[in-house]
Amino acid sequence: MANLIKVHGSQNSFFILDQTKLKTALTDDQLRKLAQHLTNHQTGVLGGADGLLVVNKPTRPGALAQMRVINADGSEASMCGNGLRTVARYLAERDQKESFKVDTMDASLQVRREKDFAPDVPSFAVEISPVRFNKEALPFDNLGHDRLLGTPVPEFAPQLTFSAIAIPNPHLISFVSQEVIEGPLLGELGPYLNGDNPYFSDGVNVNFAHILGPNHLFVRTYERGVGFTNACGTGMSATSLAFVLLHGDQGAFDEPITVYNPGGMVKTVVHYQDRRYWVELVGNATFTHHIKVEEADLHQASVNAENCTITATGEQVAYEQFIRHLPKFNLSQRN
Ligand SMILES: N[C@H](CCC[C@H](N)C(=O)O)C(=O)O
């Protein structure tokens, strides 16, 4: 038998598969097919998810394990902030450690357990980096700029300005009014820039942010390879960096920024150390279900309600209690 865990960070949900526990690791093509199958709201168990997080042996000295990120459409991403918090918790409990490094595609990232956000809402802090601004890092092209940082881009929306940050996955960020964040524009720009377009050849995660006050943001994201999600950890981190760079009167380096999202809330801290930016992302790492399944059903992407045993952890009740007390935004619809 093999195990999957259904998890979420700010209700950006994933399945975790620890391949070090399998007799035979899945091939890349099998991982892609499993991710598409498990996350699909029709074919997946528990209503599907936003992605598959794959745990492997470390790839660099000093790390405890490697995390790979497969989006719902089967594409692989270099990083996932909400997902890294849940993998950090999984590894902390698997290996009885509180602080360690996890290898991602571009870097080994520091993670550590934090004080619970609320009763039965475990919380982890994870390093989000590396950060790059140059167009080759996302990539983007045909915009007449090598970087976008609070830059008008009439091709996207005449009245808005945009920032492009690789953290290291690609993010496009715009600070907008509550009316715009609630409106249809994000649902138009997201699919366009992740479809056939002359600007982002690999697609891009699109984040609309509303400034609520000093060190307080609301961020809504249309994710590459997924669509609207309840939250995007790297999106909230990249947006926090753009916030302190462009709105220094309201967003401060080295201070906790509260970032609300349709699925809950995280804290970010933006750092500039040794001539590099990095962001600390702190938030819940909730495990909602444990799933037992035959290893063969993973290899064949044939997991379904009939051939697996699902056990709820009960943590979702505590998480919903936690978000009940958060400020309400009538933005939580995923249109
Ligand atoms: N869709 C993203 C990967 C998942 C990132 C997100 N779920 C997060 O928490 O950072 C991409 O293709 O770059």
Automatic annotation (TrEMBL):
Reaction catalysed by this enzyme: (2S,6S)-2,6-diaminopimelate = meso-2,6-diaminopimelate
Could be important to modulate the pK values of the two catalytic cysteine residues, annotated site positions: H171, E223
GO molecular function: diaminopimelate epimerase activity
Protein's name according to its UniProt entry: Diaminopimelate epimerase
Role noted for this protein: Catalyzes the stereoinversion of LL-2,6-diaminopimelate (L,L-DAP) to meso-diaminopimelate (meso-DAP), a precursor of L-lysine and an essential component of the bacterial peptidoglycan.
KW Transport (keyword) present: no
GO biological process, one term: lysine biosynthetic process via diaminopimelate
Functional pathway: Amino-acid biosynthesis; L-lysine biosynthesis via DAP pathway; DL-2,6-diaminopimelate from LL-2,6-diaminopimelate: step 1/1
Amino acids binding substrate: N12, N71, G81, N82, N169, N205, E223, R224, G233, T234
Origin: domain of life: Bacteria
Active-site residues, Swiss-Prot/TrEMBL: C80, C232
Subcellular location(s) per record: Cytoplasm
Gene3D superfamilies the UniProt entry points to: Diaminopimelate Epimerase, Chain A, domain 1 (3.10.310.10)
InterPro entries: DAP_epimerase_AS, DAP_epimerase_DapF
Entry's Gene Ontology cellular component terms: cytosol
Quaternary structure annotation from Swiss-Prot or TrEMBL: Homodimer.
Family that this chain belongs to: Belongs to the diaminopimelate epimerase family.
Keyword Amino-acid biosynthesis among record annotations: yes
EC number: 5.1.1.7
Keywords linked to the UniProt accession: Amino-acid biosynthesis, Cytoplasm, Isomerase, Lysine biosynthesis
Main location: cytoplasm
Any Pfam family matching the protein: DAP_epimerase
